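Shipment paperwork, digital attachment
Item: protein structure file
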Amino acid sequence: AVDALKLAIELEKQALERYREALPHVTHAQTRQAVEKYATEKNQQIDSLHWMIMAEEGTLETEDAPAVEEEKPKAGKCPFSGALAEMGVDITKMGDMSKMAEMMKGMSPDEPES
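Attachment content:
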């Protein structure tokens, strides 16, 4: 498997070289964008193949990354309550529309704060 992957890298490198040779001579913008995209993708494929070879050879050293803890909402059940609280919005008043004006006071950049 390793030999086949190494051969694949060589072929990908040859294709990448051809794309790079063609780029200076490309006249159409869309063609240039497509060729540049193909060249970028070839670079990524070559990098991926290198990692695959290292994994197959057993030379790839991996670290056990600590499990990422899910971020918990800062307040209440609403996932946006923490962000809203940081903006000065108390969502506990959201259900009571009579307090809406009080809650929104001073938030508009058009109104002067008192």
